[in-house]
């Protein structure tokens, strides 16, 4: 018995010793884990500090925590706001931003028309559109019309900057700069999968995964969306689109605490789109009866695009106060919008533009009958143009940054340089069809290059100096931009598809301009500041002889208050144009030549009001009740008489209003959120817009309709990593005329339901 007790005691003692050792090992491992965690957190903090510097150099706003330091109007739509809205339409994302003018076209935001502060919205060609700080228009200088626009649904955040401080983000410096920030490489292993389904066979998938190690980080992502469309084609068929977007990023970097920190980022992107979209709208009478109809003559209309982007970004920080960033970029874009252009009602009859037919279907009764499916007596009744174009934009841009802090006085200096080249190559043709009882039949295939057959190239050097001095509560930000642009055109003519040069004509235009600006920001208290700015507006001219650059002097005065649950801002502005440029775009109701022309003196003035208030946080409730409201007043008019071949302008008199700019816009939104679920309701009122220059009474046949639309969304958390969501667009199913261009009446999107699940890990 004694031996047994001794043996048991020895076993217990051994077990106790083992337990103590095990506990010691666990404590040791816990301590190592804590130390490792602290090291990781320190590494992430250091990475965040360096990322902020890079973002400040490259992006429009950079660090959103310092948005109050910008001496001008700036707006930041963050990841949380984008996630709550669940929108992939840039028009709906931007509608609560004061000062922005939007004109719907297809209902999905595929080719948006965005203007800022009365610049005009034609294909977003008068604002600087970027992704991650790089120009994203197909050919930003020579052909800025945005037939390609970055996929809004995959963006991490969106930045808008107006006023004098935007001049470092040219070339378009009158209205403002819009920058889409793509998903960044995460700090540790992260992934997402968002799936959405909805009406009209809508389906949407967004997946991404990424990770970061000591000296390497990566991200892969795809955003794919497809829908059959809400319009109803005579005889049946899709009116939607299929878009596939792929993105990859790779980062190589030295240790974060290296004496000289260096980073190399590679970004690759590919976007392919097939959309069954047309320029052919409706007559007013047909819109009243069947607003979502598509005529039979648009059956073969289709847009095919391929976009590729390549970027290499290098960053080095030799010391705490100096840094350097350089980016090489190349974007290529191919598009062929195959669409109905003209109708011929008799074998030897005149060819009528589709816009003219829909504007007066009585005078063009024979053409209208063919458009709506009536059998044509001739084989060459329908001319379908292959608007085949290739673009590229490439260059290198660099930024030198210097920052010094001495007590209450800080100096921030940026010097930027950009060498850029872009090109548009039009190589187009026309096919002939006849209409046989609602069915289009090809009767004559065109020869490629026998319609538009020309190349335009822009070579540009741009630089800027941007200095910010902060002394106590006052900061002053003078800036100076320089643009040197040369635009050349080679037109081979319609009789030389082989481009031998037998009938070659050439022309060129150049501009050399300095663009100054000054912004002042004064902080009355930690929550209240005022800012004032003055800067020169600029837009490059085309290659047409005698076309001058757009120029203006722009003034801005604003007041901002932000404390706790309340954020409010009020801004007045005046853009005084010495020369307003117009562009002859088919999308804007013109002939489609792409030529720019002088519009002379004009003025745009406006008021921007914005308020955000969290009723829940203000009252101490356990949930959030965010309330948002925004109001935009815009008055834009010509200041001299002139004649224009551009149909939306025509014969202009002093005081005539510029088309497609609503005088009043109001947005309001209200939500309820408690962390596990949320509901958001938003509404937008857009006043009627003139579709042709004029003054006084706006006639119904020359205007869009004022409309009030309501959207709703909801979200419920299934777990910390998964959520169900739903949304409805145009909740009240409002029917309205969104535009009368490119040709005929175009409707806004009807009530549409969507639902899905999102998981993040």
Description:
- The protein is mainly β.
- Helix content is 12%, strand content 51%.
- The strands form seven sheets. It has a 22-stranded antiparallel β-barrel. It has a five-stranded mixed beta sheet with strand order 1-6-7-4-5. A two-stranded antiparallel sheet has the order 2-3.
- The chain is globular, with a radius of gyration of 29 Å.
- Residues 1-30 and 32-36 have low confidence and may be disordered.
Strand-helix topology:
Layout: H1 2-58, E1 74-77, H2 79-85, H3 90-94, E2 100-103, E3 113-116, E4 128-131, E5 134-135, E6 155-162, E7 176-182, E8 190-198, E9 202-212, E10 216-227, E11 232-233, E12 241-253, E13 261-275, H4 284-289, E14 293-294, E15 302-317, E16 322-344, E17 351-353, H5 354-359, H6 365-371, E18 382-406, E19 409-427, E20 429-436, E21 439-444, E22 453-471, E23 474-491, E24 505-525, E25 528-539, E26 550-563, E27 566-579, E28 581-583, E29 596-598, E30 602-614, H7 615-619, E31 626-638, E32 642-643, E33 651-652, E34 664-673, E35 677-686, E36 707-719, E37 722-729, E38 737-739, E39 746-747, E40 752-760
Parallel strand pairs: 4-7, 11-14
Antiparallel strand pairs: 1-6, 2-3, 4-5, 6-7, 8-9, 8-40, 9-10, 10-12, 12-13, 13-15, 15-16, 16-17, 16-18, 18-19, 18-20, 19-22, 20-21, 22-23, 23-24, 24-25, 25-26, 26-27, 27-30, 28-29, 30-31, 31-34, 32-33, 34-35, 35-36, 36-37, 37-40, 38-39
């Amino acid at each position: 018995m004694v031996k047994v007790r001794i043996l048991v005691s020895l076993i217990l003692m051994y077990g106790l010793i083992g337990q103590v050792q095990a506990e010691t090992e666990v404590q040791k491992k816990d301590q190592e884990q804590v130390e490792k965690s602290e090291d990781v957190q320190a590494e992430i903090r250091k990475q965040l500090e360096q990322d902020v510097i890079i973002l400040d150099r490259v992006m429009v706003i950079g660090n959103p925590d310092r948005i109050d330091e910008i001496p001008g109007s700036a707006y930041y739509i963050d990841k949380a706001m984008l996630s709550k809205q669940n929108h992939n339409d840039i028009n709906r994302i931007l509608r609560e931003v004061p000062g922005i003018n939007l004109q719907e076209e297809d209902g999905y935001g595929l080719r948006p028309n965005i203007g800022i502060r009365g610049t005009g919205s034609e294909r977003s060609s008068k604002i600087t559109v970027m992704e991650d700080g790089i120009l994203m228009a197909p050919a930003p200088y020579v052909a800025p019309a945005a037939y390609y626009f970055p996929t809004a649904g995959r963006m991490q955040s969106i930045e808008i900057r107006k006023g004098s401080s935007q001049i470092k983000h040219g070339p378009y410096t009158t209205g403002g700069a819009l920058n889409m920030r793509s998903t960044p490489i995460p700090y540790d292993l992260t992934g997402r999968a968002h799936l959405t389904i909805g009406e009209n066979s809508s389906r949407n998938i967004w997946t991404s995964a990424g990770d970061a190690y000591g000296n390497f980080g990566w991200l892969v992502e795809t955003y794919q969306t497809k829908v059959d469309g809400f319009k109803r084609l005579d005889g049946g068929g899709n009116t939607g689109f299929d878009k596939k977007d792929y993105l990859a990023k790779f980062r190589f970097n030295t240790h974060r605490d290296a004496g000289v920190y260096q980073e190399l980022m590679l970004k690759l992107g590919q976007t392919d789109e097939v959309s069954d979209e047309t320029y052919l709208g409706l007559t007013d009478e047909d819109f009243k009866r069947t607003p979502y109809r598509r005529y039979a003559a648009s059956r073969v209309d289709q847009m095919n695009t391929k976009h590729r982007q390549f970027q290499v970004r290098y960053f080095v920080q030799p010391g705490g106060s100096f840094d350097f960033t350089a980016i090489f970029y190349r974007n290529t874009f191919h598009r062929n919008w195959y669409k109905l252009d003209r109708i011929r009602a008799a074998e030897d009859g005149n060819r009528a533009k589709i816009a003219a037919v829909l504007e007066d279907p009585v005078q063009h009764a024979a053409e209208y009958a063919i458009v709506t499916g009536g059998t044509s007596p001739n084989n060459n009744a329908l001319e379908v143009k292959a608007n085949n174009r290739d673009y590229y934009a490439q260059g290198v841009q660099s930024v030198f940054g210097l920052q010094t802090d001495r007590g209450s006085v800080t100096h921030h200096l940026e010097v930027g340089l950009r060498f850029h080249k872009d090109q548009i190559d039009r190589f187009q043709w026309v096919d002939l069809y006849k209409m046989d009882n609602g069915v289009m039949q090809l009767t004559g295939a065109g020869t490629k290059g026998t319609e538009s057959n020309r190349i335009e190239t822009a070579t540009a050097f741009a630089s800027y100096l941007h200095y910010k001095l902060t002394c106590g509560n006052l900061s002053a930000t003078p800036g100076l931009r320089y643009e040197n642009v040369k635009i050349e055109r080679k037109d081979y003519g319609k009789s030389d598809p082989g481009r031998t040069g037998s009938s070659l004509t050439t022309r060129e235009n150049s501009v050399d301009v300095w663009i100054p600006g000054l912004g002042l920001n004064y902080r009355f208290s930690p929550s209240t500041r005022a800012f004032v700015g003055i800067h020169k507006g600029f837009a490059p001219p085309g290659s047409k002889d005698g076309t001058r650059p757009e120029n203006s002097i722009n003034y801005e005065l604003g007041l901002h208050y932000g404390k706790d649950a309340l954020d409010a801002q009020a801004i007045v502005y005046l853009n005084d144009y010495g020369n307003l440029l117009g562009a002859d775009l088919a999308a804007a109701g013109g002939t489609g030549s792409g030529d720019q022309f002088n519009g002379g003196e004009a003025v745009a003035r406006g008021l921007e009001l914005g308020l955000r208030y969290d009723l829940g946080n203000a009252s101490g409730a356990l949930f959030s009740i965010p309330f948002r409201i925004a109001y935009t007043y815009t008055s834009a008019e010509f200041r001299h008489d002139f004649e224009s071949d551009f149909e939306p302008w025509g014969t202009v008199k002093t005081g005539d209003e510029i088309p497609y700019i609503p005088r009043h816009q109001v947005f309001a939104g209200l939500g309820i959120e408690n962390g596990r679920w949320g509901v958001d309701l938003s509404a937008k009122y857009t006043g009627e817009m003139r579709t042709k220059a004029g003054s006084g009474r706006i006639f119904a046949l020359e205007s869009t309709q004022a409309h009030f639309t309501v959207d709703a969304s909801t979200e419920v958390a299934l777990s910390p990593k998964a959520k169900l969501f739903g949304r409805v667009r145009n909740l009240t199913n409002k029917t309205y005329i969104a535009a009368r261009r490119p040709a005929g009446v175009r409707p806004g999107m009807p009530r549409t339901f969507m639902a899905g699940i999102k998981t993040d890990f």
